[in-house]
Structures are given as C-alpha cells and as structure tokens.
Amino acid sequence: MKKICMLCLVTILILANSCIAWADIGLIGISTDNINLGEDFVNKEFSRKITFHNNGSAYRKVTIEVDYNDLDLKVDSTNFTLRSNETKEITLTGHFPEYNGSFSATLTVKDDLNYTNDQVIFITGYAKPKDSGGTMLPAPKNIKVMISVPPTVGFISWDAVPKAEGYKVCLPKPADKCITTNETNVSFQPYLQWYLDGKFTFTVVAKDKNGKYGHKATYTYTY
Q: Signal peptide position in this chain (predicted)?
C-alpha cells in the first residue's frame, strides 16, 4: 500500500513539473510584430523601440537575427536573458534603402524554451527620391519682358532653373491666364491688348520631374 501511495505521489509531482514546464514555453511578449516606417527619403536614418516581456517563471535566453539587411538594420542587443516577469527594451536602428520604392525586412526572435516556434517582426516602408518633396525648386531669375514697337509681339523670358522639367507663367488677364512651356520663354501676344495701358504683375514658376511646382517669382512690368 505504501509503495502504491509513493508511486502516486511521484506521478503527481512529475505531472505538476510537466505542467509548470509547459506553462514556461509559451511565446514571450513582444510590443509589436509589424513596424511600418511610413514614407521618407532614401538613406534617411530611423530608430524604433521594441519591448520584450517574459510572462513565464523560467529564464529565457533570447536571440534576435536580422534576416534581410538592405536597410543596414542593427539592434543594440542581439542576445539577452529575460528573468521571470522581466521586461527589456531594445533599440532598432537603420536607414531607408538607396533605391526608391517599397521595401520590407524582418527580424527573427528566438528563445531557448520555444525553439520550434520563432517569432517574426516585419519592417516595411517606402523610400522616395530626395528631390521629390522636401526641396522645392528655386524661383526663376533674370526675368525680362519684351514688347515690340508697334506692340504686335510680346515675350517673357527667364534664366533656366537647374533640374526643372517645365515652367508656368501666370498673367492676371484674362482671368488669371496661365501658360505652360518646356522652354525658358513664352509668347503672350494673344493677350497684349490687356497690357498696353500701364504696368502689370505676373508670376513664373518651375516644375520638377515629379510635376511639383517650386517657388514663384513675381515680376512687375511697366509699359
């Protein structure tokens, strides 16, 4: 009878230890599984925080692997130990790729008590050319107006703007008339009748390869 009781007690202890072990091999907590960096310029540096938490009672040895490194990804701690109920924050750094367009990368998180079920953190974003947003083209310079005598021909000219793909000239009459061109001059002969009785003000602006207009140049001419 005593042998039977001892056998039952040992069995209970084994089962109890087994339950504790199974309770410890659940996934560690991670603050995010998807880091969306949004849209920014090529080669732009970034930094993000990631938090890890051990919900179990056993120590966890955690390893972080960078699976794709076109972003020059780095973490300040690739191997660390999490004690029971311990939280650790690490810093992820890198930069947007040199090419423009969508990109993705991954971090693989492994721990020694859950080696058959790794966790993956996805990193996504979009890199755009440096000249496609933040830097506007400068205003055109050296603007000149030429009206023939008698007034049958009228031209507006300006110096070329570096990286400009086109220009727009806006006249106040008739009804804010705008003329687009790929040259550094335009003819406003059809509208001369509105500009022979004094002075008038107009604007010239350059357009980049993405269709974005830069800073305007405002010019006043007295006839």
A: 1-23
Q: How confident is the model over 70-116, as pLDDT tens digits?
A: 788 889 999 999 999 999 999 999 988 877 778 888 889 998 887 67
pLDDT per residue as tens digits for the range 19-58: 444 345 567 889 988 999 988 888 889 999 999 999 888 8
Stated as kind and residue range, the H or E segment containing 7 is helix 2-24
From the list 158, 157, 164, the residue with the least C-alpha distance to 136 is 164
d(CA 147, CA 163): 29
Phi, psi of 65 (to 5 degrees): -115, 135
CATH number for 28-128: choose from 3.40.50.300, 2.40.37.20, 3.40.50.11540, 2.60.40.10.
2.60.40.10
Q: Which long-range contacts link 62-65 to residues 24+ away (Cβ below 8 Å)?
A: 62/28, 62/109, 62/110, 62/111, 63/109, 63/110, 63/111, 64/90, 64/107, 64/108, 64/109, 64/110, 65/107, 65/108, 65/110
Considering the chain, what is the average pLDDT of its residues? 82
The ranges of the chain annotated as CATH 2.60.40.10 are 28-128, 144-222
Cα–Cα distance for residue pair 52/31, rounded to 1 Å: 7
Find all residues with CB under 8 Å of 65, minimum gap 6, and list them: 78, 107, 108, 110
**Residue labelled with tokens 């109890």:** 16
Reading the block at residue 18, the tokens are: 């087994």
CATH code at 144-222: 2.60.40.10
